[in-house]
Amino acid sequence: MKLEALLEEQQIEFEKHTHVPAYTAQRLADVEHVSGYMVAKPVVVRGQSGFAICVLPAPKQLDLERVSEILGDPEVRLATEAEMAELFPDCELGAEPPVGSMFGMRTIMDTGLRDDDYLIMQAGTHTEAIKTRRADWERLCNPIIGRIAKS
User: For 28, left (φ over 0), alpha (ψ -120 to 50), or beta?
Assistant: First the structure.
């Protein structure tokens, strides 16, 4: 299922934007003319209990130790490109939406994303983005919330 279809099915309002290719979350912020702190950057991790999508502001880096603590899993690591291709077959590599529920995964959200009313995210391609209310995105994902970004 595509992100747009899921949002429509859940009756979540959103704006779809088409833009020049953006291969990083920070570049997405640039082409959307917004702060990188409004862009929800997904980072996929794998632990003993499976995969999870960690979502943090574009300018930040993931703290794997914190994710490991939050999940209670000592074996957390970044997903490989091969795993990503298998997990997200309908998405361009690196453009997966930060919505774990779409893919049967847990979502972990960094507390820093709670500072904005809206979030912008890739919609499965490097040329399409979705803007939606953060509260609606949280309702859709039901994320675990914690400090997972390095300061």
Answer: alpha
How remote is the C-alpha of 94 from its chain's centroid?
10
Which pairing describes strands 50-57 and 128-133: parallel, antiparallel, or unpaired?
A: unpaired
pTM for the predicted model, two decimal places? 0.93
Task: Please tell me the predicted confidence (pLDDT) of residue 115.
Answer: 87
Question: Do the beta carbons of residue 66 and residue 96 sit within 8 Å?
Answer: no
Q: Domain extents for the chain?
A: 3-146
What would the pLDDT profile of 16-74 be if each residue is shown by its tens digit?
Answer: 999 999 999 999 999 999 999 999 999 999 999 899 999 999 999 999 999 999 999 99
Strands 40-47 and 14-18: unpaired
- Token pair recorded at residue 30: 């640039």
Kindly report the CATH class assigned to 3-146: alpha beta
Instruction: Count Cβ atoms within 10 A of the Cβ of residue 74 and give its class: 0-12 exposed, 13-18 middle, 19 or more buried.
Output: exposed
Query: Distance between CA 51 and CA 73 in Å, rounded?
Result: 11
pLDDT of residue 91: 93
Q: What is the pLDDT of residue 151?
A: 72
- The DSSP-derived string for 86-104 is HH-TTS-TT---S-GGGGT
